[in-house]
Amino acid sequence: MLKSKRKQLILEKVTKDKFVSLEYLVQALNTSESTVRRDLDELESERKLRRVHGGAESLHFLQEEESNQEKSIKNIQEKTRIAQKAASLIQEYDVIFIDAGTTNELLVNELHDPSVTVVTNSIHHATKLVERNIPTVIIGGVVKRSTDASIGGVALNQIGQLNFDKAFIGMNGIDSGFFTTPDMEEGAVKRAILENAKRTYVLADASKLGNTSFAKVAPISRARLITNQTESEVIQKIKEKTEVIEA
Fold first, then answer.
1. What is the pLDDT of residues 228-243, one digit of tens each?
2. Which CATH number fits domain 3-58: 1.10.287.3510, 3.90.550.10, 3.90.1150.10, 1.10.10.10?
């Protein structure tokens, strides 16, 4: 297959799915991994996509945000390992906050201890938790359709009246300085969660590392990071400021 055709097919896949894995491209294009890597390098140099661990993704914009449905089909194995690592940190009788999001949904699936109380701003999480007989407190407010997260003044007021032993939150962007998210209101909710928790963990697969979104949530030093990627240049800088837990 001609290089121009390969690059066209790669761009079509990235445009459609926002992310494509190296393994998929090797099989779909019926070519070697080294050839695919060269094609991806060229496309990145042409500013048509961005290379990430394990593949490539469409170019990231500050206020761009995928829906939970779009996120739920990406990096499932990595997210599952991250969720399992997070679950191992929860102790008997903990009061924890679980943020909305697809990785945190996998964390909900790992919970079985009825002595743990969970506070969440996700209707979807709350339903699953109640079905598992886990004591659950749901935060009210305006529900953001794309992420299933309660946001706004009501959510902020309710979170501000509570304390948590541990909080598990998601982020869209993690660079060497800040945790960030595309939406200012959702960013304010995440900030409130962090401020009311004794210990906060950010759950993020490698696709979030090196990205910067519109709204700053907190400096990197304010939370620990659980991720499947612990060797990148960005991670080395993050390790200078906070604990990085490998999943």
1. 977 778 899 999 999 9
2. 1.10.10.10
- The residue written with tokens 């679950």 in the block is 87
Q: Which of 139, 151, 138 is nearest to 181 (CA)?
A: 151
Residue-level pLDDT at 60: 63
Q: Alpha-carbon Rg of the chain, whole angstroms?
A: 19
- pLDDT at res. 66: 53
Q: Looking at residues 121-146, what average pLDDT do you find?
A: 95
Q: Which amino acid is at 153?
A: G
**Pairwise CA distance, residues 138 & 198, whole Å:** 19
233: alpha, beta or left? (left if phi > 0; alpha if psi -120 to 50): alpha
Residues 145, 224: Cα–Cα separation, whole Å: 28
Name the pTM for this structure: 0.74
> Which residues sit opposite 21 in a β-bridge?
55
